[in-house]
Specification:
about 600 residues; alpha+beta; Creatine Amidinohydrolase, Chain A, domain 1; six-stranded mixed sheet
């Protein structure tokens, strides 16, 4: 019916193979002298999306969620994930082989302290475990009376007979018309940070930092335009970038060669050892492999803990990037609105499936002529599937959209001028009073964040309760953060700022974050409303400068799911004003039929 080019609907995990694979892995652990092994769904860079060659968790357990840690002992195994994936984990893994643990409520380190036998040797992969991660594991092993040891070879790889080859996709230049700043100027700014912080060398282990710094993009991982790469950036002297030369055209090689010494990834260890001699070396504790910390220490360097200097710089978008994000969202909003109009006409028939819905939405975005990729696999949950926070439809789980149910669709796109992420929950037919009431409570939280005005220095943790207050007062809540940072044609999930109980980074003008409160009734329905927001300066307060948000996302919010009696006059004014902007900005991009639908879908509410 419709085509999905950037996502598939096959369940990549296969729990039927887990028993045999677990047995083989345990035999390999014994061969290596290990009593236990811990590994995460991670590559050497701690990317959110990893190439097929790094999908060890899915290969062993069948679980395909993006957040997972597995611990294997001789007589038991556990899979740790967060609240977004607990329902999915129960469906995908064999509960007789793996216990399912909540990685926030009971972290793997705590579980290990309780379950590791005295005298056991716990193995880990030093290239796929961060330095901070090793510290936590050492503490857990000590509490259990066990010992931590770096595996000489990843035991999973030793028994994964048909492991895919690493990706080898071309690196492309990201033009200044989109980046807004030449790479040489970015390198100079990074060096200013190094000088200010008295750091001799920065190691960029996050490919997003490398991509931003050198104005390059790639396609080595799904949904995020990254070239897998590393960089060493000294405060003085020539930078080095480590990327497989087979990915470089002559044009790209020449451009990079004017900025840095271009090296092969296999040379990283030797070059870092040389660069670290007697220097203070900044390693990002959240992305840098423990192996790099070991190299620095062996070379006689000292480790400066903290985020790499690019993290804060790329989070604050320049005027070109902001203009690009605005343009991308107008284009994306029109595609989404056309989709919502189609959905409203066709879904009540009961003939439309979740896969149909996902494929059409991608088609609508491709019809813009500007789509480079989707920014993450579309979450399209009908009825009870909507209650699975990060649900991904497969051929096995696909269900029809039925009258009387809710349909939650969370999706995004990658355009060269910007990255989008938007969620809408719509009623198929007539919603129940409970659905309307709880949708309205979620909407109240969404509006509260959108309208927030706050002093400079405010963190996401301080704003997170704005999204939850109405739900809390009804005895309800949601088990995920309210919002995350978003990159500029980079990762749809970007640090350092987020609106979350754990969001400790101050919000700065130019940062872009999502605003996505929700509510999920297991086995029945899910609700989420998401727009992207730009942090902007407001008028000065009496004592402190004030900040607020500009909304970037424009698409209608389903009026059929709103109970006006639960909204204040100020909230109704916000919603009507927002829908007025949607009509003004999106309407001219639609044909007559969809424009008429939009007019009806954004009819002003009366207080």
């Amino acid at each position: 019916m419709f085509e999905a080019k950037f996502q598939t609907f096959k369940d990549e995990g296969d729990k039927t193979q887990s028993a045999a694979r677990l047995q083989a892995l345990r035999a390999e652990l014994a061969r290596q002298g290990l009593d236990a092994f811990i590994f995460a769904r991670a590559d050497k860079h701690q990317n959110e999306y990893v190439p097929p060659s790094e999908e060890r968790v899915a290969w062993l357990s069948g679980f395909t969620g993006s957040a997972a840690i597995v611990v294997v002992l001789a007589d038991k195994a556990a899979l740790f994930t967060d609240g977004r994936y607990t329902l999915q984990a129960k469906e995908q893994i064999d509960g007789k082989l793996f216990s399912i643990e909540h990685m926030i409520e009971k972290p793997a380190s705590k579980w290990l302290a309780e379950n590791l036998p005295t005298g056991a040797v716990l193995g880990y992969d030093p290239w796929r475990t961060t330095a901070d991660g090793v510290e936590r594991l050492e503490k857990a092993a000590k509490e259990a009376g066990a010992r931590l040891a770096a595996a000489s070879e990843n035991p999973v790889d030793a028994v994964w007979r048909e492991r895919p080859a690493p990706p080898l996709t071309p690196v492309v230049l990201h033009d200044a018309q989109y980046s807004g700043e030449e790479a040489a100027a970015k390198i100079a700014r990074i060096r200013d940070v190094l000088a200010k912080d008295k750091i001799g060398v920065a190691v960029l282990s996050d490919p997003a930092s490398v991509a931003w710094t050198f104005n390059i993009r790639g396609n080595d991982v799904a949904h995020t335009p990254l070239p897998l790469s590393w960089a060493i950036l000294p405060r003085e002297g020539e930078p080095q970038i480590f990327v497989d030369s087979r990915k470089l055209s002559n044009e790209v090689r020449d451009a990079l060669g004017k900025l840095a010494d271009v090296r092969e990834p296999r040379e990283l260890e030797v070059e870092l050892h040389e660069a670290a001699r007697g220097k203070s070396v900044r390693l990002d504790q959240s992305t840098a492999p423990a192996k790099l910390a070991e190299i620095v220490k062996t070379a006689g360097g000292s480790i400066s803990k903290g985020a790499d200097p690019v993290t804060n710089l790329k989070a604050v978008k320049n005027e070109t990037e902001i203009a690009g994000m605005r343009a991308a969202h107008l284009r994306d909003g029109a595609a989404l609105t056309r989709y919502l109009a189609w959905l409203d006409r066709e879904a009540p028939s009961g003939k439309i499936s979740e896969i149909d819905a996902v494929a059409l939405l991608e088609t609508c975005r491709r019809d813009t002529g500007k789509l480079k990729e989707i920014s993450f696999p579309t979450i399209a949950g009908a009825g009870p599937n909507g209650a699975i926070v990060h649900y991904r439809v497969t051929e096995a789980t696909n269900r029809k959209l039925k009258p009387g149910e809710l349909f939650l669709v969370d999706s995004g796109a990658q355009y060269e001028d910007g990255t989008t992420d938007v969620t809408r929950t719509v009623a198929i037919g007539n919603p129940s009073p409970e659905m309307r009431a709880r949708f309205t409570l979620v909407l109240k939280g969404h509006i509260a964040v959108s309208r927030a005005v706050f002093p400079e220095g405010t963190t996401g943790a301080q704003l997170d309760p704005f999204a939850r207050r109405a739900l809390w007062e009804a005895g309800l809540d949601f088990d995920h953060g309210t919002g995350h940072g978003v990159g500029s044609y980079l990762s749809v999930h970007e640090g350092p700022a987020r609106i979350s109980k754990l969001g400790m980074a101050p919000l700065l003008p130019g940062m872009i974050l999502s605003n996505e409160p929700g509510y999920y009734k297991a086995g029945s329905y899910g609700i989420r409303i998401e727009n992207l927001l730009l942090v902007e300066k407001r008028k000065a307060g009496i004592e402190k400068p004030l900040l607020g948000f500009e909304t970037l996302t424009f698409a209608p919010i389903d009026l059929r799911l709103i109970e006006p009696a639960l909204l204040t006059a100020e909230e109704i004014t916000w919603l009507n004003s927002y829908h007025s902007e949607v009509r003004a900005k999106i309407g001219p991009q639609l044909d007559a039929a969809d424009r008429k639908w939009l007019e009806q879908a954004t009819t002003p509410l009366k207080a």
